[in-house]
Amino acid sequence: MKKTSAVVLSAAMAVIAVPAYAQNYPARPVRLIVTVPPGGAADLVARVMAQKLGDALGQTFVVDNRAGGGGQIAADTVAKAAPDGYTTLLASITTHGIGPHIYAKLPYDPVKDFAPVCLYATMPMIMVANAQLPVKNVPELIALAKAKPNTISFASSGSGGAPHLVGELFKNVTGAPIQHVPYKGSAPGAADVAGGQVQLMFDAIAPHLPHLKSGRTKVLAAISPARLPIAPDAPTMTELGFGKVAASIWYGMMVPAGTPKALIAKLNAESNKALAMNDVKERLSGAGIDTAGGTPEDYAKFVRDELAKWGPVVKASGAKLD
C-alpha cells in the first residue's frame, strides 16, 4: 500500500512540476538554429522572431546559423538535443517537406524526432531569369535549353535547399537540361543571376526585388498556386502544364520530440503574439513574406500534408540526392 501511495505521489509531483518548469522557462538563453547562412528570408524570419520572443520571455534567443547538407546539419542538431526547450529549429520545406523524400538517407526522422511549435511564415516562389536571356517565357526557355544542352545554369541558395530542389523538379518534369550552381545563400545567387553569371533561379521573391526593380532580371513564372502581384503577367507553372512544379517556401519553429507540452504551449502562445504584431507583419511583408501562426496541432497537420504532397511529386520526378 505504501509503495502504491509513493507511486501516486511521484506521478502527482511530476504533473505539478511541468507547469512550474514552464513558468520559470526560459532560465537561460535559447538557441534558434537556422539551416542557412546569415542573410536571406529564413535568417530574417529567425531574427525577427528571436527578438520578439526574447523581449516577451526575458531571455536572449540566439540565432545559430548551421548551414550545410540541405538543412540536415541544423535539423540533426536539434533532433539529438535535450528536449528541454533550449534548442529549437527554424524548420522549413527543405527539412520537413521535400528533403525527406529527395535524400536517400536522413540522419533524423522528420516526424518522430520533432515536436511542432508554430508555423511562422510562408513565401510564394518565382522562376526568375537574367533580363538578357533571349527567351520571353518558359516554353521558349525549355526549347533553348534543349537546343543547347547544359549551357543554361540555375543558381540556388545551396545544395539540397528548396531553390535547388524545385530546380531539380523542374528539370525532371520538363526535361530541360539545365545545370545547378549552388551558392552560400539566396542573396549571392540572386546577384549573379542579375549579373548574368548564371541565367536562372527558383526562389522566394525577397532576394530578387532589387534586381527586378532595376530591370536586370525578369519573372518567367510563378511557382505558386496563383499569379503574384509583383508579376501579374507571369503565368503559374500549373497554367503552363507543369503543375508538379509548385511550391511555397515556409518556416516554423520545432523542438526535439519529448519536449514538455507546457513549454511548447508557452512558445506557441508567445510566437502567435509576435506574429500578430503590426511591426512584425510590416517588416516581413516588405520582404515578400506572409506571417502565419496557429496551434501546434495546426502546424503538425501542415507538415503531414507537406510530406504527403511532396512524396509522390519527388517519386514521379525521379529526383534523388545522396
Describe this structure in words.
The chain has 322 residues and is of the alpha/beta class. It has 11 helices and 10 strands. The chain has helices at residues 2-24, 41-57, 72-79, 93-102, 138-147, 162-174, 186-195, 209-214, 261-275, 278-285, 296-317, and strands at 30-34, 61-65, 87-92, 114-130, 153-156, 179-182, 200-204, 217-222, 248-256, 290-291. Strands 1, 2, 3, 4, 5, 6, 7, 8, 9 and 10 form a 10-stranded mixed β-sheet that branches. Helix 6 (162-174) links the parallel strand 5 (153-156) and strand 6. Helix 1 runs parallel beside helix 9 and helix 2 (41-57) packs across helix 9. The radius of gyration is 21 Å and the shape is globular. The termini are far apart. Residues 7-17 have low confidence and may be disordered.
What is the count of DSSP helices, taking H or I runs of 4+ residues?
11
Gross morphology: globular
The amount of beta strand, in percent, is 15-25%
How is the biggest beta sheet arranged?
10 strands, mixed
SSE class: alpha/beta
**Radius of gyration (Å):** 21 Å
Task: Give me the oligomer status.
Answer: single chain
Number of strands: 10
Percent range of helical residues: 40-55%
How do the helices and strands follow one another from N- to C-terminus?
HEHEHEHEHEHEHEHEEHHEH
The rounded distance between the terminal residues' Cα atoms is 58 Å
The average pLDDT score comes to 89
> Low-confidence runs (pLDDT<50, min 5 residues)?
7-17
Task: Provide a quick synopsis of the model.
This protein is α/β, with parallel strands linked by helices and about 325 residues long.
